[in-house]
Amino acid sequence: MKRLFLLEDDLSLINGLSFALKKEGYETEVARTMLEARRMWSDGKYDLAILDVSLPDGCGFDFCRQMRQTSKVPILFLTAADEETDIIMGLDIGGDDYMTKPFKLAVFLSRINALLRRSDNFNREDTQLSSNGVTLRLLEGTAYKGGEKIELTANEYKLLRLFMENPGQVLSPEQILGRLWDCGEEYVDGSTLTVYIRRLRTKVEEDPGKPDRIVTVRRMGYKWNMDR
């Protein structure tokens, strides 16, 4: 059962939404103030959050900012304010959808179902990469070979992720350097990249001297081999 978090101070709306969500098969926990919301959020695990913007002791936008420091769950804002600037702000700070009061219950439920569906797809498809016996758990930033954890440096992990996200595609040294080390990090040239490739091979290949996962394509670059 999906657990939903509702931050709302209007008791009549709370009762109506809670009843409708229960009929849809969702478990809903309700907070009516920012103080209560902070306590409940820190103690619980939820699949989606529904946040009112105007609260007796604060603003749902502020709570959204706090949530986004630690959580990627979908967030739907509910508010009486329909100003474009409010809607833009809500989405820019991490909200996924925005509904203005009053709203139709059927539309509300449809939005909830859609957000949860997209979240499920993200969790299935985008949080793990696996091929050739190697697995990356993207949210954890960890790598495994044959079920055993591989100890990688931050740059080795980024390099491996780049290869696994582009299987079978030849990446030139210039492409790799441009994708991974062009954001103000330590300077890396072609010779240093060769060292990174060699070190990464010692950790992901069965025989680093004869690599069949990260292969060199003569005069072109490197690729994550899907034909091994």
Q: How would you summarize the topology of this molecule?
A:
Layout: E1 3-7, H1 11-23, E2 27-31, H2 34-43, E3 48-52, E4 54-55, E5 58-59, H3 60-67, E6 75-79, H4 84-92, E7 97-100, H5 105-125, E8 128-131, E9 134-137, E10 142-145, E11 148-150, H6 154-165, H7 173-180, H8 190-204, E12 214-217, E13 221-224
Parallel strand pairs: 1-2, 1-3, 3-6, 6-7
Antiparallel strand pairs: 4-5, 8-9, 9-10, 10-11, 12-13
Helix pairs in contact: 6-8
Quick structural overview:
The protein contains eight helices and 13 strands.
Any key phrases for this structure?
single chain; 228 residues; alpha/beta; Rossmann fold; Arc Repressor Mutant, subunit A; 2 domains; five-stranded parallel beta sheet; 13 strands; 42% helix
Describe the fold and architecture.
- With 228 residues, this protein is an alpha/beta fold.
- It folds into 2 domains: 3-125, Response regulator (Rossmann fold, 3-Layer(aba) Sandwich), CATH 3.40.50; 128-224, Winged helix-like DNA-binding domain superfamily/Winged helix DNA-binding domain (Arc Repressor Mutant, subunit A).
- 42% of the residues lie in helices and 22% in strands.
- A hairpin with a 3-residue loop joins strand 12 (214-217) and strand 13 (221-224).
- The longest helix is centred in the middle third of the chain and has 21 residues, at 105-125.
- It starts with a strand and ends with a strand.
